[in-house]
Amino acid sequence: MTTGISDRKKMAAPASMRSAGSRIVRAGFIPLVDASVLIAASEFGFAKREGITLDLAKDTSWANVRDRLAFRMFDVAHMLSPMPVASMLGLGSNPSPTIAPFALNRGGNAITVSTRLYQRMQETGGLSGDDGALANAHALAGVIAEMKAKGEPLPRFGVTYPFSSHNYEFRYWLAAGGIDPDTDTRLVVVPPPMTSDALAAGAIDGFCVGAPWNMVASERGVGRIVAAKQDLWPSAPEKVVGMRPDWAESNPETVSRLIVALDAAASWCDRPENRDALSEVLADQRYVGAPVDIIRRVLTGEFTIDPQGHQRIIEDYFVFHAEQANYPKPSQALWIYSQMVRWGQIAPSKAAEKLAASAYRPDLYRTALGFKDAVDDFGAEGVAENDRFIDGFAFDPASIETYVERFPVRSRAASSASDET
C-alpha cells in the first residue's frame, strides 16, 4: 500500500489559516461509519487546529441533507458520491449546484439479503456458503426466475437514495448475475438506520447500505451478507464532502482550511492504533449510535456475515486516506454519470458529461494541500489487476456511450438513446 497524502511532500497549511480566527462551519451527516472523517475532525481537534469550529448536525435521510445544503442550513455535508453529480445535472427533487472538493472514503458498503431469501438461493443455486459475490448473484437470478414462473411477488430491495452508490452498486451486482433491476425486482428507498428493521419486518428482502447496518442485520439473525463493495469495484468512491459552489467561491480560505483539517483527520482514521478511540466516539448516540463492538469490527473488516456466525475478513474494507482515497477524481464522477445513463436517469450528451465531471473539484483539493502527485484526472478505471469490476469491464471516460452499450443488462431508455446516436 502506498503512503497517505500526509506522508508525502506537500505544502504546509499557511500560517494565516490558523491565525485568521475561528470560522463556524455547519456540516450535516448521516449516522454511518463513513462519516468518520468529519466526526474525527470535530472530536479530536483537527478542525480546531485549522481555526474551524465544525458544527455537526445529525440527519435522517439523504434527501434532507441535500435540501438543507441547498437552503443554506448547512455549509457543507457528508454526501453520497453521486449526489453532487446528480445536482450538477439537475436531477432529482430540488436540485441545487453542488461540488465535491474532498472524498471521505472508499469502501464500507455491502449487500445483504434476508435469511429466508438466502436459504432459497442455496436450494436453487446450490450455494455452499463460501461462494463469491458473482455466484450469489447467479443464484438469486435462479430464484427470481422461479418466482416469476410461479407468479410470486418480485423481491423488494432497499437502497438509500436514487442517486447513490448503493443504488448503482446493487444494480451492477444484480445485472452481473443476469437480473434486470427494473423488471425482475422492486427497488425502494429506505434510510440507512431503518434497513435492518425493515428486513426484520419483511418489508424488504434485502438491501445495499453502508456500515454498520449490514452487520447489525446479520448479528440480529435476520440477514446474510452476500457481497461487499470491494467485490464490485474496489476503488469506487463512496462518500464525499459536498458544498455549494457559491459558498466555496465566497469562502476560499475556509474551504482550504477545512480540506487541510479533513486530510489530517482522514490520515488519523486510517491508523489501526486509533480504531478503539474512533469506535467509542462513533458508538455515541450523537453520531452512529450502534454497538461499539460492531463498529470496531467493521473498521477492521471483520465481518459476521450470517446468523450462524460465519466470518469474512475484507482487507481495507474502509480506506479513509491511503491510496489517494481523498482525491476527487473527475473520471470517477464520469463513471457515476455512465450508470445514470445506463439506467435511464439521463440521456447521454457531451454537455451532460462536462457538467458531471465539473462536480468533482481536484483543483480545490490541490490548492489546499499543495498536492503535487501525478494523477490522471480522466484516466481509465478498473484496469489495474487489484481494481477490477465484478464483470471484468473497464471504464474509459472518453467512450462513455460505447461503454454503456456493452452491458447486456441496461434500461430500455438507455438502449433507445444508444440506438438513436
From TrEMBL:
- What SUPFAM superfamilies does the entry give? Periplasmic binding protein-like II
Please give the superkingdom of this protein's source.
Answer: Bacteria
This protein's UniProt keywords? Cell inner membrane, Cell membrane, Membrane, Transport
Q: Which GO terms describe its cellular component?
A: endomembrane system
Taxonomic source organism: Oryzicola mucosus
InterPro entries annotated for this entry? NrtA/CpmA_ABC-bd_dom (IPR044527)
Give the subcellular location.
Endomembrane system
Please name one Pfam family that this protein belongs to: NMT1_2
Q: Does the keyword Membrane apply?
A: yes
What's the protein here called? ABC transporter substrate-binding protein
